[in-house]
Amino acid sequence: MKSINAKLLISGLLLALLSGFAGLVVIQSNRSAAEIATAMIHQGIDPLDQLEGAARSLGDLERRFNAVPDSLSELPMLRTEEAAELLTSLTEIVRKVRGAMVALPNGGQGHKLDQLFYSINRLRTSEGDVTHRLVRRELANILNEVDAAIDLIRDDLIRMHERTQSERRTIDLAVMAGGAGGLMIGLLLILYLSRSISRPIRSAATILRQVGGAPNSGSHHQTSDMMADLEAAIRFVETVIETKDRSSKLLKSTSAAHIQAAVERQQNRLRIALDALQKPLCLVDEGGRMTDANAAFLHMFPGLTVGSHISSWTDHTQLTQLLAARAQDEVVTFPDGWTCRVRCHSNPIDNGVIAVFNELTNQDTAQRELERISSQDSLTGLLNRDAFHHDLENALKVGETPFFVVVVDVVAFKTVNTTLGLTAGDELLRAVGERLSAIAGPGGRVARLAGDEFGLIVRGENAVRAPERFGRVIVQDFARRPVTIIGRPLAVRIAVGVVPDLQPGSGLDVQTVMRDCEIALATAKKSASDPFCVYAPEIQKEHQNRQDIERDLREALARGEFELHFQPFVDVKRGCVSGFEALVRWNSPTRGRVSPGVFIPIMEETGLIVPLGLFVLRDACRQAAHWPEGLTLSINLSPRQFEGGDIVADVRQSLAETRLDPKRLQLEVTESLFLSDGDRVLTVLNALRGLGVAMSMDDFGTGYSSLGYLSRFPFDKIKIDQSFVRDLDRKENMAIVRAVLGLGASMKLAVIAEGVETAEQMRVLQEEGCDEMQGYLFSRPRPAGDLPKMLVDIKEGFQQGRFGREVNVIPMLRSV
Ligand code: C2E
Ligand code: CA
Ligand code: CA
């Protein structure tokens, strides 16, 4: 329990409860004692009084009748007056006994009195019609009974008295016990309170003394009055604080004077040093006021005074401009013919600058011009690659502010060169350079790093936070505003890579930063929708992975790690294999079997698909030439194979070399082929068809304008993509399959469904009129050695009804 108030409250409540309880016990005991006393009066003393009165009357009566001489008493009957007297006395006695009976509670004594009452009444009702002897006997009896009743009541009274006594003793005991208990509890409470209240007060006093710096709190003598002790402690601390305050003021005043003197000495030293300097030099604060200048400066520019504002230097406007622009490295010739190089170093103390003027000799001037020329890119006038690296090195080593680097690549620049001509290409590069310089602002350093690649170094206060925003500004600027070249607007696509958070002195070198730039740029280029990337270590890791695969793929090509597998095309009407599609496999000694889904895209990006495609073409044709007559060979061609080289010549040569009948060769292309230069593609496709080979459209229906392409080029075959076949239960898929089959029928195109995995899919497709299929239901792609087995297995499969329905197989293959 923490609060003293709470402690006091609870203690008070306990004491009040205790005394209340003791009081209750006493009141209760008193009440019962009083009740007993009343009972004694009512039940004992009253009836006793009455009975004793009756006994006295009886005694008188007895004496009266005993006083009658024996002789007389021998008289058998009472006389009339005697009888009357007896009657009167007895009536009186009866009244008293009745009174006693009324007062007595029902019980033993009551019963006794009943008997007595009965005896008296018996004598009374005799109305004196009795003998003296009988009267005497009866009176003696009655008197005995009255005495006995009196004795009984007296006993009762004594018992009552004893009970009162015992009640009183109980009260005494209760009062004593209550008193003693209360005393004990009170003592305990006082002990507890004094401990719990006094201890914190004392410890507060001790802490105060410690705070005040009393030598040893343990040695301090504590007085018995803790409040006085606390007060004393507070006073002690006050005194200590006062003393300290006074001494610190004293110290401050003395040290301020000391520091002042030191500063003045230092200033004097600086003054002497500055004035000894031959180079003119001045300091200008953020607001443009000259705060200091050395003797050389004041000599060179007479009339200028320290404290004046640069805007007031009307005789030296050139100087004003240089300082206002914070010239970084400017060569100027002043009106009096003095040529110098001006450098404004930033002065962080008042956000101003320290301007230093280096006199130039003639030789210096020539050298500088040479430097300028050699650091410039002749086409754009921007910095060249060497100058950019030099700048970057300076920024990394001796720079003062954090910065970031941005690299910009003009996507498909080559296409501009080839389609619009070299002059247009040059114009485009110049325009891009100007646009970037405008975005970078006056302080920005923009360079052309290579053919269509630009670099920017961006410094500034928020260089730590701004890289992402800055990069996006560039992307958006080009996305929104076309560049005008040879008089026409051209939408220029750019990719932007950013390396953020570069700190001077971080130990990074130019090569590392440029490598990171290239990684960010390469990553940006990969995304057509958002060609923007800020470098991060994870990107480096990803990039490294890609590089590794790329390297392995190159080696794989050289080492011949690629192999062809074949997957059958099945004629379900005739129940036999109609041909095979060649699908390439990579058996990497380190990575195991890698899926073409992983390596084909990388090979397409790197262009490695061209040599690989040539291998597939040659090897597949070579193998197919040995297959039974009538089996077709299908080969996949990548769009990249249509770009460089000469695919037409390659196919012609492969056919000639292997003597494969061109009619047996089908070439599969996808719609992505038409994304690049459509006209050129059409020319090549027509040339291929001219060789006598069939052209097949792969993955039909997955692109956006499959139908459009179909109308532009007369394909021989359409392959319904497996995504539609996989889920024929979906209405829209079924509708597409039907539409493609209808289209095939009307355009006289063969249609093949790929990815057929179940007998049910085969049944539905066949019902819809599709006769050629490919899929795991018949066989997975298998190595060349498994070809004969596939032919036999599939034929048997149809015969045995394994694919759902039995078919009359036309014997077609005699041997392989
Ligand atoms: P693709 O040309 O569409 O080839 C069909 C792919 O579907 C093959 O995958 C084949 O194994 C798979 N497939 C066939 N039937 C079924 C089936 O019933 N169910 C399922 N789930 N899949 C089935 P693969 O061999 O992994 O080839 C993937 C892709 O790699 C090919 O797709 C093709 O685009 C490319 N590719 C393979 N070989 C070459 C090649 O020599 N040259 C070029 N340019 N691309 C190739
Ligand atoms: Ca294919
Ligand atoms: Ca396909």
Q: What does the model show?
A:
There is one protein chain. The chain has 816 residues and is α/β, with parallel strands linked by helices. The protein folds into 4 domains: 4-188, Up-down Bundle (f41 fragment of flagellin, N-terminal domain), CATH 1.20.1330; 277-364, 2-Layer Sandwich (Beta-Lactamase), CATH 3.30.450.20; 379-535, Alpha-Beta Plaits, CATH 3.30.70.270; 565-581 and 605-799, Alpha-Beta Barrel (TIM Barrel). The chain has 25 helices and 22 strands. Strands 13-14-16-17-18-19-20-21 form an 8-stranded mixed beta barrel, surrounded by 5 helices. A 5-stranded antiparallel sheet has the order 2-1-5-4-3. A 5-stranded mixed sheet has the order 7-8-6-11-12, sandwiched between helices. The protein starts with a helix and ends in a 17-residue tail after the last helix. The protein binds ligand C2E and calcium ion (2 copies).
Task: Give me a quick take on this structure.
The protein has 816 residues and is α/β, with parallel strands linked by helices. Helices cover 57% and strands 15% of the residues.
C-alpha end-to-end distance: 100 Å
How many domains? Answer: 4
Number of helix segments?
25
Low-confidence stretches: 812-816
